[in-house]
Write a structure and sequence with these properties.
Helix content of chain B: over 70%
Radius of gyration of chain B: 23 Å
Largest sheet of chain B: none
Oligomer: heterodimer
Strand content of chain A: under 5%
Largest sheet of chain A: none
Order of helices and strands of chain B: HHHH
Distance between the termini of chain A: 65 Å
Number of domains of chain A: 2
Number of domains of chain B: 1
CATH architecture of the largest domain in chain A: Orthogonal Bundle
Shape of chain A: globular
Strand content of chain B: under 5%
Radius of gyration of chain A: 19 Å
Chain lengths: ~180, ~90
Amino acid sequence: MTNTGDKQNAGKIAAFDALVSEYEGVLLRYVTRIVMRHDAAQDIVQDSFIKLFNNWEGELHPSPEISSWLYRVAHNCAVDHLRKETRRNLLHHRQAEERDEFTPPNRGEDFRLNESAEKAAAALHKLSLRDQQLIILKIYEEKSYKEISEITGLSVSNVGYILHFALKKLAEELKKSSAI
Amino acid sequence: MKNRKKKETKVLKSKCRSILPLLFDYACRTCELSKTQHELAREHLKSCPECSIAAKNMQSVVGILRQASNTAPARLTDDRRQRIMKTCVLRH
C-alpha cells in the first residue's frame, strides 16, 4: 500500500475514533433507558458503531445525519435485544413451571433507581416500544420533532400526536402506581 | 339547538386536535414553538378546560420522568472500544 493510502486510512480511523467519542455517551444513555441493563447497552452501542463503520458511505464526521442514523440503528438493536430477552424469559418461565418454581427475571443488578424514578421507569416500560422511544427522545434527549421524525421515520405531525397520547397513557400508569 | 351544540363540540374538538401537537411544548416550555403557536396554544387553553387539564397532567408527568436521572456511564468500556477500533483496522 502507498504512503498516501496509509495516511488516508489512518485519517479515516482517527475521524471514526473522534466520532465514537462524540456519540458514545448519548447513545449509552439512550439505550440504557430502553434495555435497563448497562452491559447490554454497552454491547448494543458497540455494535451500532461497528455497523456505522461498515455501512456509512459518506464522510465520518459528526453530523445530524450520522446522529439520526446512530439513534435509529441503536434503537433497532435495542428492540432486537428485548425481543430475544422476552423469548429467553418465556423459555425460562416454562422450564421453571415444569419444575414447579418461578423466579421472575430481574433487571441488571447494576441498575438501581430511587423510588419515584423506579415508578416512572416501571410506568414507562408498560408502554409500547414506539411510545417509549418518542418519550425518551423528547424528554430525556430533548430532540426536536424534526429530529425525532428523522430518527423514527414518522411525520413531524404524527410525532406530536403519538407523543401526546403516549404521555396521556403514561399519566394513567403513574396514577395507578400513585406516583401522581 | 341540539344540532348547534353538536356543531360547537365538533368545532372545539377540531380546535383541540390542532392544538395537540403544540401542547407538549407549551406545557413544558420548550423552545420549539413560534410566537404565533405559543399564542394559539395559550388562547385555546384559556377556553378549553379539557386541554388545560391535559397540559397540567403533562407537566407533572414530565416532572416525574425528569427526576429519574440516568446512571448510564458516559463512556464505552475499554475492551468494547478496542473491539470497535480493531474491527475498523481489520476492514482496512
